[in-house]
Write a structure and sequence with these properties.
By secondary structure, the protein is α/β, with parallel strands linked by helices. It is 37% helix and 19% strand. Its cofactor is Mg(2+); Mn(2+).
Length: 400
């Protein structure tokens, strides 16, 4: 059984092909700069083979055609025919309140994805374009949507509602939805297995740190709160996103003459580490290097980044009445030994202490980084959103 996973962005298309008998990756890669000059394709196999070239394609449909051609190429491919693909799984950002689980794509599902365009203007149109490209290129092959919001749909109203007039929620769907759900779900399941317990007995904080950052409070395997909100802008400080902000700051910027489009760009693409640091980068590695060389603004950005995370850990610790563990994941959570130390060194009052040796050893691999005498565990747990999507396709279509 072979499952193709597609993650279509506004100007990109990532793909991973799995053999689900052993959950082995057969091929993976991406198209970048779709709709711009010099679109670039990367194609990799697990045996080390890599193909990279500029290929002139205009849109997601043309990109998918080239991906499919590569998958069945007599020399470079891993399939004899596209008919070997059993089903296709798609990452979709937003399903609103109407889609709360992975769903086989039909006209109704596509209409809901379209209805959510205003809630995910950059992602949902691209996600739908990826679905429709697959329908065109591989007619008859079932497509399954796996939504970033779905794992967070267990939040109670007191967690997901904003303290604004209730009619705005009823009329416009303005509420906290949460994102990175596929990653938080995978890490929850993986942490439960790591702790050798059932997921329904697992109460943890999941901490997804990358260019985008979010946390979730997971009680007995279900999310009761998460940091991202109506959009992926709320919550933690991120690579280029501001995170939590007084709404009056937005009003002030508009009053000063900035258009709403300009403010949106400022808060999403020019803020966070990028906006506070002075190095023209939102990359954690660059920020740490700059701070090491004496940049005061880089150091300030790092302190702000860690402080926001520590504040949410404290809040979620109380909400969960003492979790069993916190799991760090994502590019920063898995690989940034220094940032994990900055966070962990502030958690002693919660009974959680860092083992520096373990922290250094857990570079991109699962393991406990807290001391044995800590009252709960800090864990590094690599995420795998693509595999989670592939597993969801198998479960949704009852392919086992």
């Amino acid at each position: 059984m072979k499952i193709l996973v597609i993650n279509a962005g506004s100007s990109s298309m990532k793909f991973t092909l799995y053999s689900m008998e052993n959950e082995q990756i057969l091929a993976k890669g991406l198209f970048e700069r779709l709709g711009y000059d010099k679109p670039n394709m990367v194609y990799k196999r697990p045996d080390g083979y890599k193909f990279e070239a500029e290929i002139p394609v205009k849109n997601h449909v043309e990109a998918l055609k080239k991906i499919c051609e590569k998958l069945v190429d007599p020399e470079d491919g891993v399939l004899k025919s596209l008919s070997e693909i059993t089903a296709i799984g798609h990452r979709v950002l937003h399903g609103g309140e109407k889609i709360t689980a992975p769903v086989k794509i039909d006209d109704k599902a596509k209409e809901i994805i379209r209805e959510c365009f205003p809630l995910g203007p950059l992602h949902n149109p691209a996600n739908l374009a990826g679905i429709e490209a697959c329908e065109e290129e591989m007619p008859g092959v079932p497509n399954v949507g796996v939504f970033d919001t779905q794992f967070h749909m267990t939040m109670p109203p007191e967690a997901y509602l904003y303290a604004i007039p209730y009619d705005f929620y009823k009329k416009y769907g303005i509420r906290k939805y949460g994102f990175h759900g596929t990653s938080h779900h995978y890490v929850t399941l993986a942490t439960a297995k790591f702790l050798n317990q059932k997921v329904e007995d697992t109460t943890i904080i999941t901490c997804h740190l990358g260019n985008g950052c979010s946390m979730a409070a997971v009680k007995n395997g279900k999310v009761i709160d998460t940091t991202m909100g109506l959009t992926p802008l709320e919550g933690l400080m991120m690579g280029t996103r501001c995170g939590d902000l007084d709404p009056a700051a937005v009003i002030r910027l508009v009053d000063l003459g900035h258009t709403t489009a300009e403010v949106d760009k400022i808060l999403n693409k020019q803020s966070g580490l990028y906006g506070v640091g002075d190095i023209n980068s939102g990359d954690m590695r660059d920020m740490l290097a700059a701070a090491e060389k004496g940049s005061e603004r880089a150091e300030l950005a790092l302190k702000m980044f860690a402080r926001r995370i520590v504040k949410y850990i404290g809040a979620y610790y109380v909400l969960l009445d003492g979790p069993q563990a916190i799991s760090f994941t994502g590019g920063v959570g898995e690989f940034s030994v220094p940032m994990r130390k900055r966070i962990m060194d502030q958690l002693g009052s919660l009974g959680l202490k860092l083992d520096d040796g373990r922290n250094a050893e857990c570079f991109g691999k699962a393991g406990v980084i807290s001391t044995d005498d800590s009252s709960w565990k800090a864990i590094v747990m690599p995420t795998d959103e693509e595999l989670m999507i592939a597993r969801s396709v198998v479960d949704t279509l009852h392919l086992k």
